[in-house]
Write a structure and sequence with these properties.
By secondary structure, the protein is α/β, with parallel strands linked by helices. It has one domain: Spore Coat Polysaccharide Biosynthesis Protein SpsA, Chain A (Alpha-Beta Complex). The protein contains 9 helices and 13 strands. Helix 4 crosses helix 7. The longest helix is centred in the first third of the chain and has 16 residues. The protein is globular.
């Protein structure tokens, strides 16, 4: 009969035990970054993940997804989750465990849907909720992997404005392309009143580009998807506002936001760079 017992925390050497407890406390209390990169990228038709699209500046290569990751690291975020699909091995190959970038990266594989009459490539709400087991109970900083945001300290700004009584904080950027983005209506106190997704015409000037949220919003998103079948992220946010959650907008002063979802967007970015 085997009478051996499993080793317990108290059995470990003190220095290892203290390090483990420190890491566990940090992981549960610090903000965690969330980057959904499970999309198929069919519009670009690249032979590699669109998140690795090369941005070349000063004779140096940087994939587009590295920008948002560096934005998070600049805000002191040490734990970052990349949500990928089963084909995105090259993302793991490039980013690895995150140590080269000053962070710890975990990967979540988003399962394809197999429901009839439904896209096999789940949308943003599914991707964000795929990491629920890691984001539950935490403050989350969320950014898209095919965007370039300036200034680099955008997440620092959001976290500083994310008070305990705020459930969702949106980083807002002025845009002249409202038909491509989620436009935000907010009052003089920066309280968000509604999200208008990709309107053909609007008087709204600001779009959300990134955000931070509390554990309450994580539960709200999870419930919207699993209890209500809601897969539209703009609707998830509008339902949060309707349900009385506190949603704040933070206009990013002298900020810029570029979404590289199409070749038209890429050409526009290159033309802007050449004009500098």
């Amino acid at each position: 009969m085997n009478t051996q017992r499993e080793p317990e925390l108290n059995d470990m050497p003190r220095d290892i035990r203290n390090k483990l407890q420190e890491e566990t406390t940090s992981f549960t209390s610090e903000p965690i970054g969330l980057i959904p990169a499970a999309g198929r990228g069919l519009r670009l038709g690249l032979p590699y993940p669109k998140e690795l699209y090369p941005i070349i500046r000063s004779n140096r290569y940087k994939p587009v997804a590295q920008y948002v990751l560096e934005n998070m690291v600049a805000a002191g975020i040490r734990y970052i989750i990349l949500v990928i699909n089963e084909t995105k091995h090259q993302l793991i190959g490039y980013f690895g465990d995150g140590s080269r970038f000053g962070c710890h990266i975990s990967y979540v594989v988003q399962e394809n849907l197999e429901k009839e009459n439904q896209s096999t490539s789940p949308g943003l709400v599914h991707a964000l909720d795929a990491a629920y087991h890691l984001t539950q109970g935490k403050t989350v900083a969320f950014g898209m992997p095919d965007t370039i945001m300036n200034p680099p300290d955008v997440f620092t700004n959001l976290l500083e404005n994310h008070d305990p009584d705020i459930n969702l904080t949106l980083g807002l950027f002025q845009t002249d392309r409202p038909e491509k983005l989620g436009m935000v209506q907010f009052d003089e106190q920066n309280r968000v009143q509604r999200i208008v997704d990709k309107p053909a015409q609007t008087d709204l000037l600001y779009a959300w580009g990134c955000m931070t949220w509390s554990a309450v919003f994580t539960e709200h998103l999870h419930s919207c998807l699993h209890d209500g079948g809601v897969t539209d992220f703009a609707l998830v946010m509008n339902m949060a506002i309707k349900n009385g959650m506190h949603v704040r907008g933070v206009p990013i002063q002298d900020g810029s936001y570029v979404d590289l979802g199409t070749y038209e967007d890429i050409m526009e970015l290159e033309l802007q760079h050449r004009a500098l």
